[in-house]
């Protein structure tokens, strides 16, 4: 019955609004899950940095390797925080879209007509680029086009899912700030490492270092999974 009505009279506005809200709620839940996972990763990474600092204090002979290890995890923490900031921004943007879409449907109900919104189209175009939301945001854009809220978006207007270069760059000053924040200068007592200087690791610490490397690889895998 609904299909026949849609053929002769066009899509039902209430049905369209429900569909749009369902998609936006689904996207919000996905972002909340991803943000939660990043919080767990951040907590674990902070602990790895603290462990490296404690190892350096207990055994001065391992200070150099511990410093390198702590900086490696600090770089991962910078990436995690950038990703979390991006997701929080996207969540706020998605909520803004939901408010604008519901307002557009309300105006349509009162005035009997709908004016296309370039603001909503711009926000949807931004959100559809996110790997986390790409599929459902494309569904949402289709529904919004059918409802007459935005113009049809062509694939050429939507760039490939890729992070900006400045998001990929690992600024050393950010890494140093992270180490200062977590360790309060405790690790700074260790000698800085020259790029071509080989690390001298104590045999006792080899197994522990391998465990940390495995943890780092697992952490990177989880972070990449949130991006793809």
From TrEMBL:
GO terms for biological process: vacuolar transport. InterPro entries: Snf7_fam. It holds the Pfam family Snf7. Gene3D superfamilies: 6.10.140.1230. Residues 198-207 have a biased composition (Acidic residues). Residues 187-207 are annotated as: Disordered. This is Snf7-domain-containing protein.
């Amino acid at each position: 019955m609904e299909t026949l009505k849609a053929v002769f009279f066009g899509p039902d506005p209430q049905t369209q609004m429900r569909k749009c809200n369902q998609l936006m709620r689904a996207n919000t839940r996905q972002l909340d899950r991803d943000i939660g996972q990043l919080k767990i990763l951040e907590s674990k990474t902070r602990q790895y940095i603290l462990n490296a600092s404690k190892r350096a204090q207990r055994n001065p002979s391992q200070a150099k390797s511990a410093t390198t290890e702590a900086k490696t995890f600090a770089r991962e923490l910078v990436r995690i925080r950038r990703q979390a900031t991006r997701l929080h921004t996207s969540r706020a943007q998605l909520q803004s879209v939901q408010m604008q879409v519901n307002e557009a449907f309300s105006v349509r109900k009162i005035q009997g007509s709908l004016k296309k919104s370039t603001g909503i189209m711009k926000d949807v175009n931004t959100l559809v680029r996110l790997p986390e939301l790409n599929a459902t945001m494309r569904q949402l854009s289709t529904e919004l086009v059918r409802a007459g809220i935005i113009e049809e978006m062509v694939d050429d207007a939507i760039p490939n899912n890729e992070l900006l270069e400045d998001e990929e760059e690992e600024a050393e000053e950010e890494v140093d700030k992270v180490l200062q924040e977590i360790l309060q200068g405790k690790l700074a007592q260790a000698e800085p490492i020259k790029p071509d200087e080989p690390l001298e690791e104590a045999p006792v610490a080899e197994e522990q270092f391998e465990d940390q490397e495995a943890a780092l690889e697992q952490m990177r895998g989880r972070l990449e999974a949130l991006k793809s």
